[in-house]
Design a protein that fits this description.
heterodimer; A: mainly alpha; 78% helix; B: mainly alpha; 73% helix
């Protein structure tokens, strides 16, 4: 379970971010337990800290969570045979980390039966670890010295997630354009730069893909 | 009260996005271009989060050696492109950052 090690500082930082943004401990833990999405939690905390309107915070979290739509589409064919009582909890626990770990099992040949137990075990382990680390972050708050730069571990977690999803030249174009636009548009209010950058990156990937097919 | 509204809205949207295809729709019924666009969402969104985290630590663009984060980020990227295990880039990146902070500091 090497993925767990990336989750530990990330969850901790998300917990610290909640109390630093002015959420009560109960609100910070509720946000984490109900949304179970580190990126969404961090974005919400940043926007709550500057007193953004609720709709802005919800919309920003929605846009960064569009990744989940892609994970859902990729996982759906492998879960379609399961009854609802399996699909609802597995869907709830779908994250970058669980997808990155589980997607390898989907492509493996061999016995497909009881694979859902394996996915459930993995997802539950990630969920429990995540929530424990968030609670620890909420409890300790800003007591961790800033010189440790623990917030950088969050960026590193995303680098670890980013590298394996860049497989083709079109993926690379999507990543580079999105990164560049995120820097250029950083001055926009309400983290709109993330929205603009994501759309630009997706468009760049599509453009490369279309020209490749027409050659 | 506002914060609980936000918590409810964010939680509903993350669950609906996760559940979208697993519970409600067959991805095969959507046009090819749509499914193609979906595959670019993770690299685009993740890169849009990573780039400012490396190059704008103080809120403004800092491509100098006074900002150790982009150098530590490059170290992590190099490690991440060579190994699947996420511990490698996180450990290497933190070690590089702490070393650079100590060396610059």
């Amino acid at each position: 379970m090497p993925t767990l090690l990336g989750v530990v500082p990330f969850g901790f930082v998300a917990g610290v971010a909640a109390v630093s943004a002015g959420l009560s401990p109960l609100e910070g833990v509720a946000l984490s337990v109900l949304s179970f999405s580190g990126i969404a939690q961090l974005i919400v905390c940043q926007l709550v800290a500057v007193d953004s309107p609720a709709i802005v915070a919800i919309a920003a979290a929605f846009v960064v969570s569009l990744r989940l739509l892609m994970y859902s589409a990729a996982a759906a064919p492998h879960l379609a045979h399961l009854p609802l009582r399996w699909r609802v909890p597995l869907a709830f626990m779908l994250t970058d980390q669980s997808f990155a770990t589980v997607v390898r099992h989907f492509s493996e040949p061999g016995d497909r039966r009881h694979r859902e137990w394996h996915i459930l075990g993995l997802s539950l382990t990630l969920l429990v670890t995540w929530q424990a680390c968030v609670i620890l972050g909420v409890a300790l708050g800003a007591q961790v010295p800033a010189s440790w730069s623990l917030d950088f571990a969050v960026v590193l977690t995303f680098i670890a997630l980013l590298a394996p999803v860049v497989r083709t030249r079109a993926d690379l174009a999507a990543a580079i354009i999105a990164g560049a636009v995120a820097l250029l548009a950083a001055g926009l209010p309400y983290r709109l730069s993330l929205v603009v950058a994501s759309i630009a990156g997706i468009a760049a990937g599509m453009a490369i893909e279309v020209t490749r097919r027409h050659r | 009260m506002k914060i609980w509204l936000i918590i409810a809205g964010v939680s509903a949207s993350t669950f609906l996005l996760r559940a979208s295809f697993i519970l409600f729709a067959d991805p095969q019924r959507f046009p090819h271009a749509f499914r193609q666009a979906l595959t670019f969402v993770p690299p685009a969104v993740l890169a849009a989060i990573v780039a400012p985290g490396l190059l704008m630590p103080g809120g403004t663009l800092d491509f100098t050696f006074a900002n150790p984060r982009w150098i530590a980020g490059l170290v992590a990227l190099a490690v991440a492109s060579r190994m699947r295990n996420p511990v490698g880039p996180i450990a290497a990146g933190m070690a590089a950052l702490w070393f650079l902070q100590w060396a610059i500091g």
